Amino acid sequence: MTKAAVLGSGSWGTAFAKVLAEAGTDVTMWARRAEVADAIANTHENPFYLPGTQLPDSLAATSDHVAALDGADIVVLAVPSQSLRANLEGWSDSIGKNATLLSLAKGIESGSLLRMSQVITQVTGADPSRIAVLSGPNLAREIAARQPAATVIACSDSARAIDVQKSCATGYFRPYTNSDVIGCEIGGACKNVIALACGMASGIGLGENTIASIITRGLAEMIRLGVALGAKPATLAGLAGVGDLVATCSSPLSRNRSFGHVLGEGGSMERAQEAAHGQVAEGVKSCTSVRSLADSYDVEMPLTDSVHRVCHEGMSVQEAVGKLLGRQTKPE
Ligand SMILES: NC(=O)C1=CN([C@@H]2O[C@H](COP(=O)(O)OP(=O)(O)OC[C@H]3O[C@@H](n4cnc5c(N)ncnc54)[C@H](O)[C@@H]3O)[C@@H](O)[C@H]2O)C=CC1
Ligand SMILES: O=C(CO)COP(=O)(O)O
């Protein structure tokens, strides 16, 4: 039986641990706070991040990372992007030498501008062939309710991708393998930024034409950056690109879209943060790192730049809209 450790017990870590357990994998979750681990282990619910969802009895939980990692074939990294490095530094020595490291995080590290798989290689020294990424239209609450969805598992080693695929395939969760790690990571990080833009647009009362235009031009930005970094355009036309963009930009369940909506309504960053109830909206930090990454490759990303200006330079959403539409006209 495949054994997995899920490190991070937020909404996606918990929902994905449930998927793994329901696919027949032996799963132990790690939570930073003992009260979260205790609640999962004793009440089979995570009242802090996924209230109301019954978790499988077989799902174990602990706040001791050494115990969670003991014998794990698959190590699922389910903490937010900006805290992955610091966490991994503490976990690295306890990770099995042949374990597959599966990243769930959708962001680009601030400062270093590294993708999550690159952070993992840097901290653990693991060969890139051991690192996999899972990304797709996977809003945690819908997956927890067993609503059908598909996803992508990207790994340069196809045998490992297939092992991970088998560990999480269920009657409602359909993972596809892909060898394009860069494409999946860029899709996941960029769609959060574009979802913030869609939320901002809906917050100031704009309708579906605007949202569709942002999604489509956001996709163009994502493809430009991805291709510059070595991604395949087909990956970004798939579940980890278009698929996740559509889900995140359209759903009120998205934390990024909701965060942008509050800003569009005229709320402050602090108000938007409060409304997120302690959950992460990755695009708020990644808009800056994606923008810097794009700059360093001479890639134009005007929507991403506008999201950065609204979030971090005090530009109003109205001003950002005016600036975007005032740009020189050009061919599609
Ligand atoms: N929630 C969702 O629907 C989905 C989320 N993701 C991605 O998964 C990643 C994790 O997101 P969620 O589980 O949704 O986040 P969350 O905000 O629900 O929970 C974050 C988890 O990380 C922990 N955490 C926060 N800062 C930490 C730190 N410094 N050290 C250790 N643990 C820390 C929290 O205690 C919590 O357990 C993010 O990159 C997100 O973009 C991907 C797909 C779906
Ligand atoms: O990544 C997600 C869906 O695929 C979740 O998006 P949010 O982080 O915006 O909720």
UniProtKB/TrEMBL annotation:
Q: NCBIfam families given for it?
A: PRK00094.1-2 (NF000940), PRK00094.1-4 (NF000942)
Per the UniProt record, the source organism is Antrihabitans stalagmiti
Q: Which gene encodes it?
A: gpsA
Alphabetically, which GO biological process terms does the record hold?
Answer: carbohydrate metabolic process; glycerol-3-phosphate biosynthetic process; glycerol-3-phosphate catabolic process; glycerophospholipid metabolic process; phospholipid biosynthetic process
InterPro entries xref list? 6-PGluconate_DH-like_C_sf (IPR008927), 6PGD_dom2 (IPR013328), G3P_DH_NAD-dep (IPR006168), G3P_DH_NAD-dep_C (IPR006109), G3P_DH_NAD-dep_N (IPR011128), NAD(P)-bd_dom_sf (IPR036291)
Give every Glycerol-3-phosphate dehydrogenase NAD-dependent N-terminal domain span: 3-159
The taxonomy runs:
Bacteria, Bacillati, Actinomycetota, Actinomycetes, Mycobacteriales
Q: In which pathway does it act?
A: Membrane lipid metabolism; glycerophospholipid metabolism
Q: What is its EC number?
A: 1.1.1.94
**Where in or outside the cell?**
Cytoplasm
Q: Please list the reactions this protein catalyses.
A: sn-glycerol 3-phosphate + NADP(+) = dihydroxyacetone phosphate + NADPH + H(+); sn-glycerol 3-phosphate + NAD(+) = dihydroxyacetone phosphate + NADH + H(+)
Please report the name of this protein according to its UniProt entry.
Glycerol-3-phosphate dehydrogenase [NAD(P)+]
Known Pfam families for this protein? NAD_Gly3P_dh_C (PF07479), NAD_Gly3P_dh_N (PF01210)
Catalytic machinery residues: K191
Q: Where does substrate bind?
A: K106, R255, N256
